[in-house]
Every structure is written in structure tokens, then in C-alpha cells.
Amino acid sequence: MTTIHPSASDANFEELRQDPFFEVARDLAADYLADAFDDPAAGEADRWTLSALPSTDYTPDRHRLFTLNVGPMEVLYIERFLEVGEIVDYRVALCLSRSALLGETGLNPEGLAMRYPLLRFHDTAMVSAEGDGVVVDWFVSDDGADDQFFDLPLEKAIRPLAERLVAKGRGPYAQFHNRAFAAAVLAGGER
After folding, report:
1. Structural domain range at position 130
2. pLDDT tens-digit readout, 123-173
3. Each residue of 65-103: pLDDT tens digit?
4. Number of domains into which the chain is organized
């Protein structure tokens, strides 16, 4: 009998569904996949994987809601922050093609920081990005950060990175892939 990793389990998906930020998390994952692939469903578990409540960087006051991987690299995750067991904030982190982001905005890294002061931009250390990955992260509690985030040319900056990562082959995350969460993401929440 095969043991199912907790982040791939229906129990973790059901717990994730109870989080107040679930619908936003689901929609962000769906949007990333739609920008990355013409047919996201065709690449499930081969080109991309999605975990529910992974133990990555888990501490008593910080938990990941999910991680989306494309090929061998994490490209999107959301963390929730707690104080005395109560949710106090969420942080969204998303990886884009650095060259596409700079090219589409016409800005250098300093210009990005000035135009989008509520967002943080830092180059990813992930080798699979081949020096062309930038992580954009922001806290939901920062009023206006979501507007700045959605002002970025996400579609134009997601696809080039996804194509680079898929060319590297399947990532090592299949055992963490949560099919129930993936189905909800692909269905747009109909599940």
C-alpha cells in the first residue's frame, strides 16, 4: 500500500478549504497556470504540481497554504502568519521572468521598487531559473499592495519563466501533488 504524503491528502485539502483566504489562493494558482500554459489541465503532475498545506518553512506562527511548482521550481506560494493561534496576515510570493518583467515595464530594478513600493522584488537563488527569475512578494495587510501586484504584466512575465522551467523536465514534487486541490483550481472553484 502506498503512503500518501500529507500535502497530497484529501484531509489537507479539506483543511485548506476552511482557510478564509482559500478562494483567493485558489484563484491566484488558477491565474498563474492560465498565464503559464495554454492548457493547464494537460500538464497536471507532469509540468506542474500543487501541494496543500506543505510543511515547507513551517513554524508555529507561519504556515504555507500551498506551493505551486512548475517543473523543478517553486513559482507561487502563500503563507499565513499567526499570533496566539489567530491569523493576522498572509504573504503572497510569486516568481516571474526577470527579463520579461523589466522589458514589459521598461523599468530597471530600482524603478520597479519606486513604482511599486508595497511590493518586494528579489532575484531567486533557484538555479533552474538560470538567472532570469525574480520573486515578487507582498503582504495582504499592506493596503494597496494587491492593486500594485495586479498592475504588473503578470501574463507576459509568467509564460517565459514557465517555458524555461518546463524544458528542464518534470520536477521532484509528484509525491506532494494534491489532486483534489488541483481539481478545484482547474475547475475555478466549482468543486
Report:
1. 6-187
2. 998 888 888 999 999 999 999 999 999 999 999 999 999 999 999 888 888
3. 999 999 999 999 999 999 999 999 999 999 999 999 999
4. 1
Looking at the domain assignment, is residue 1 inside a domain? no
pTM of the complete model beyond 0.90: yes
- Give the chain as a 3 state SS string: CCCCCHHHCHHHHHHHHCCCCHHHHHHHHHHHHHHHCCCHHHHECCCEEEEECCCCCCECCEEEEEEEEECCEEEEEEEEEEECCEEEEEEEEEEEEHHHHHHHHCCCHHHHHHHCCCCEEEECCCHHHCCCEEEEEEECCCCCHHHHHHHCCHHHHHHHHHHHHHCCCCCCCHHHCCHHHHHHHHHCCCC
Number of neighbouring beta carbons within 10 Å of residue 7: 25
